[in-house]
Write a structure and sequence with these properties.
This protein is an alpha+beta fold and 607 residues long. It is built from 16 helices and 30 strands. It has an eight-stranded antiparallel sheet, sandwiched between helices. A five-stranded parallel sheet has the order 3-2-1-4-5. It has a four-stranded antiparallel sheet with strand order 23-30-28-25, with no helix packed on it. Helix 4 links the parallel strand 4 and strand 5. The longest helix has 17 residues, at 250-266.
């Protein structure tokens, strides 16, 4: 077994992996950016290393910085968690080549074959797994999209090769959207995954999203651990997941599980992964979907999933510990027939978002109250404690609540109780939305599809739920002098906690050099890059939230009209078009692609 594992991630998933390591008597190493220096995963780890500034590209996505931290810590394995570098075949290949360090995950070759969606579709098709009609080669030219539309009709889904979670996916409703949506999908693919390759699929109008958890070892054993239903989504991003699916018959469930095993075996896949399918819903159906229902392969996620906890609760199998053991060469010690599904589990993503404002991400705040629920059948995966500041540089999910019951009815009842107990103040979250969904007739009956939240539900109910159960306040930083007695210092990039006694006066915040003058504390999210000097007194177009500039749509001297897009800003994994509120001539463009900005920063000046 490994001596020490570096977890190349942050937040709750980093802590989840570290807990599995602790139970295996394996040491843990955290990496962190400047924005996360007080993060929960840093507190939990045996040791921690700073790998760069807040911007993910210069820290959590920096291959060499992560591997160098592993070398400094003398770690003999790296676990990537999910997101960031978890599905980056190039990074996995570098870890495999690093002497004395093992990659905890599928091989880089498998990741490349299944992580790139067109290759995965070919493998699955050859393994007799049903696939959605689409392309098996990357698409670069709008003419290819037009031709696909002529053959298969609209709408069309344009998807990034390295995408997932709805990122890098655009839907083309008709010919007029082809060029803009192709460009947008390519841009998101490059921004999120460093790969602007995209492919096409027929866009299913009314599907359920069903995924199968698998685990495979290097001895040829492949097991599936049942399915999860992830159909409740907003903008193609999951918010509630459950298992088993309330919509599948046992016969259909077995067909889908067998297809997942068959496809993974054909790819010579080793370690944990998830095979995702779309199942066509039958409007007006009575009872569950039968064995004749259409289902299609969607993609393979070559990593641990956010919602792996659902499967752990209904099977009793610790998937993360299995990942570590498989990476160490151990053989799976159970047969497929040994996998039993016990009860029902639901996972609620606790996102720092306001569902009443189209799931707008919170722009800051401090957890003035944090009191998570407990009791029988209640699991909380987080990396939080009361007093923590919200870090807004990364994903909006701050915790996961997983609830188990003997059946779905008990699980829903217990979930309502747990959500009522969950006290969070100082940061807006979607807890009120979750409470609403557990009383929603369509969800309770298990008839929701991936379109339900975006197109069918009465969204005014989100506002009512937020007013009734929500906390809209985002606590402001108090202007008061705080005497610190616990310090975090870095020596050669390694983090140490130091306790000192301060006898009055303000503690300088200038770093390790006592001669540096004291400065006000910086926000946990880190500061934005140096702002350009704003010239003139014209109309200013400001950033509406903290994020990263994906593209600048105008240049100096351009004429723009009210409503024209001037900048595309990425925040919390979503593209946001920043538009001019009035017409005019562009006098100054104050930002550039890839630049980080804070809310209120001036982007463009109009005259």
């Amino acid at each position: 077994m490994f001596r020490k594992v570096l977890v190349a991630n942050r937040g709750e998933i980093a802590v989840r992996v570290m807990r599995a390591c602790e139970e295996l008597n394996v040491g843990t190493v955290a990496v962190y950016s400047e924005a996360d220096k007080h993060g929960g995963h840093v507190r939990y780890a045996d040791e921690a290393y700073n790998i760069g500034p807040a911007r993910a590209a210069e820290s959590y996505l920096d291959h060499e910085a992560v591997i160098e931290a592993a070398r400094k810590a003398d770690a003999d394995a790296i676990h990537p968690g999910y997101g960031f570098l978890a599905e980056n075949a190039e990074f996995a290949r570098k870890v495999e080549a690093a002497e004395g360090i093992t990659w905890i995950g599928p091989s880089s070759d498998s990741m490349e074959a299944l992580g790139e969606k067109t290759k995965a579709r070919t493998i699955m098709n050859d393994a007799d797994v049903p696939i959605v009609p689409g392309t098996t080669e990357p698409v670069t030219d709008p003419e290819e999209v037009y031709a696909f539309g002529d053959e298969h009709g609209y709408p069309i889904a344009i998807k990034a090769e390295g995408g997932g979670g709805g990122r890098g996916m655009k839907v083309v409703e008709d010919e007029s959207e082809v060029e803009s949506q192709l460009e947008s999908a390519q841009r998101e693919g490059e921004a999120y995954f460093g790969n602007d390759s995209v492919y096409l699929e027929r866009y299913l109008e009314n599907p359920r999203h069903i995924e199968v958890q698998i685990i495979a070892d290097e001895h040829g054993n492949v097991r599936h651990l049942g399915e999860r239903d992830c159909s409740l989504q907003r903008r193609h991003q999951k918010v509630i997941e459950e298992g088993p699916s309330p919509a599948l018959s046992d016969e259909l469930r077995e067909q889908i599980g067998a297809s997942a095993r068959r496809g993974v075996a054909a790819a010579d896949y080793v370690n944990a992964g998830t095979v995702e399918f779309l199942v066509e819903e039958e409007p007006g159906r009575e009872g569950v979907l039968g064995p004749d229902a259409n289902f299609y392969f969607l993609e393979v996620n070559t990593r641990i999933q956010v919602e792996h906890c659902v499967t752990e609760e209904i099977t009793g199998i610790d998937i993360v510990k299995r990942q570590i053991r498989v990476a160490d060469g151990e053989e799976l010690d159970f047969e497929q027939d040994d996998v039993e599904i016990d009860g029902h589990a639901i996972e609620f993503r606790i996102n720092a978002e306001n569902a009443a404002k189209d799931f707008q991400p919170a722009t800051g705040g401090t957890l003035t109250t944090y009191n998570p629920p407990g009791g029988v059948g209640v699991r909380l995966d987080d990396a939080l404690r009361q007093g923590d500041e919200l870090v807004t540089d990364y994903d909006s999910m701050i915790a996961k609540l997983i609830v188990w019951g003997e059946d779905r009815d008990e699980c829903i009842e217990r979930s309502l109780r747990a959500l009522r107990e969950y006290e969070i103040e100082g940061i807006t979250t979607i807890v009120p939305f979750h409470r609403l969904m557990l009383t929603d007739e369509t969800f309770v009956e298990g008839r929701h599809t991936t379109k339900y939240l975006d197109e069918e539900i009465d969204r005014s109910r989100f506002e009512q739920a937020q007013k009734q159960w929500g906390d809209d306040s985002e606590s402001a930083t108090e202007d008061e002098e705080v005497v610190e007695r616990e310090f975090t210092v870095e020596v050669n990039g390694k983090r140490f906690d130091v306790n000192l006694e301060q006898r009055g006066g303000f503690v300088p915040a200038g770093g390790n050099n006592p001669s540096e003058s004291a400065s006000p504390p910086q926000p946990a999210g880190g500061s934005s890059e140096a702002e350009a000097e704003i010239q003139g007194d014209g109309e200013r177009v400001d950033a509406e939230m903290q994020g990263t500039i994906l593209s600048v749509e105008v240049g100096e001297g351009d004429e723009v009209a009210a409503g024209d897009v001037v900048v595309v800003l990425e925040a919390m994994k979503m593209e946001n078009d920043i538009v001019a509120s009035a017409g005019g001539t562009v006098a100054q463009v104050a930002v550039e692609e890839g630049q980080s900005v804070d809310m209120g920063d001036t982007l463009v000046v109009l005259e």
